[in-house]
Amino acid sequence: MDLDIKRLTSIKTSAAFRERMTDLSLDLPIDDSIQKAPESPLAQSMDLGGFKVGNRWAIHPMEGWDATHDGHPTPDLVRRWRRFGESGAKFLWGMEAVAVRPDGRANPNQLMAKPDTIGELVTAAHECLEAHGKSFGTASDLLWGFQLTHSGRFCRPNDKKKLEPKLAYSHPILNRKFNLPPDYPIMSDDDVQDLIEHYVKAAILVDKAGVPFVDIKQCHGYLGHEFLSAFTRKGKYGGETLAERSTFAREIITAIRQVAPKLILGVRLSAFDFVPFKPNPVLASGGNLGPGMPEDYSDCLPYKYGFGINKENPVQFDLSETAQYLKLLKSWGVSVVNISAGSPYYNPHIQRPALFPPSDGYQPAEDPIINVERQIQVVRQLKAAAPEMPLVSSGLTYLQEYMPHVAQALVRQGWTDFAGMGRMVLSYPRIIADSLEKGALETKYICRTFSDCTTAPRNGIKSGCFPLDEYYRTSKEGEQVRQLKKDQKEKLKQVQEAKASV
Prior knowledge:
The chain is of the alpha/beta class.
C-alpha cells in the first residue's frame, strides 16, 4: 500500500506547509514566522477562575512511571517537573496523574493523593515553581496543580504488566481485545460512590496544601471517560441520556465545589472517540507492524460504546453531546477544559499523532497531520458551540518545527484559548521560552515522534525521551528500550516470514 505520507522535515517553509495542507484538503492555519513576546498571541494573559495565567502555553500532564510503590515522588519526577517549570509555559495542567485510590493506579509507580504523600508532592511542585521563577522572574502568574484520576479499565496497581480492571460497563470489543470474559464484573454503585468520596478527600488534601488547581480526568479510556459512554450500564451512573452518564463527574465536581470552593477546576476530556484499532496483519512487512485498521464492529451497531462518536459509523465523531457537556461542566463550576481524543490503549493515532508507533501500536494508515488537523477542527467547533468555556488544544507535537507557527495562528483566530504541549517538552523543555524570547527554535531537540516515551512504560520501563534527552539516553533504561525495540522487530519479522512461507 502506497501511503501519501510526507515527513515534516522535508517541508522547509510555511508556504510549503500550506501547499501540503491544500494537497490533503486540510484547513490548518499557519503563520509565516514565530512572533516573540510581548506581541505574540501566545504571550497574552488570560483569566481562569480568578487566576491571571501569564501566557497561552499549557503543558499536559505526563507520567514517568517513576514514583515509589507507595505513591511518593522520586528524583526523576522532580527533575521532570523542574524542566516543566523551565519551559516557559504559564499553565502546568495537572503536572501528572495522581491516583485517588490505590486500586486505581495505571501502574504500581503512579503518584497517589494521600495524607502521607501530599506534602512531598507540593514540595516537588515548589521545585518547579522555583525553577520557573529563576528563569522568568516570577511564578506568580503560573497556574499549576494535580490531575486526579482512577484508571478504571486500565488499572495496573500491583504489576506493570498485569491488568486489574475496574469497569464502568462491559465493552464487547475492549473486553475481547484485553482478554476479559464477557461476564467480567463491573463496578457496583456502592463502589462508585466510595470512589467519589476518595476524589473529594483528595481535593480537600490538595486544597489545604495550597494547590490552586485540580483536573478531574475524563479522557483516554480511563474511568471518568468510560462513564461518559456507559449507555448500557444499569443504575444511576449509566443510561441513554447524557445527564445519566455524567452523574459520576457531576457528583465529584459539585462535591468538590462545596468543600473546596477556592480550587480552580479543570477537566481533561476525550471529546470524541473511535472504535478500537489494530495493526493490519496483511500489510505488515519487514519486521514492521501493519497500518492501523478498525477492529470488527459489525455486531456492535448502533455503537453504544463511545462518547462523541457517530453511532452508525464509529470511525467518525459526533460532537453534539460533547458541546452539551461543556455547558454542563461550566454550570457545575469547571473553569477550563483540555480537549483530547480517544485512548492511547486502543486508538492512539487519533489523539497522539506519530510517524513511528509505540510497541503496542500500529503504523500510520494516513499522514499523521490529518489526525492533528482533526483535533484542531474539533476544538474549533467546540469553541464555537461553547464560547464561554476556555479550551486547551492537544495533539500539536507532531507539528514539530511548525508548532509555534500553527499555535499562534490558532490563538489569534480564536480557534483555541491555549496551545497544549506534551511529549515535545520531554525532549526540548525550553521550546516555549525559545519561541517567545528568540522567535526561533533549536531543531536538534525537536521531538520526531519516535514514541519511545510510550514504548518504555508499555513494557514496564519508566518513561522519558530516550532518543534526545542525554539523561535517559545514557541510562540503563535507555539501553533496555533500544534492545527491546530491536528484539521486537526481529521477532515480528520472523513471524511475518513464517506466515509468508505457508
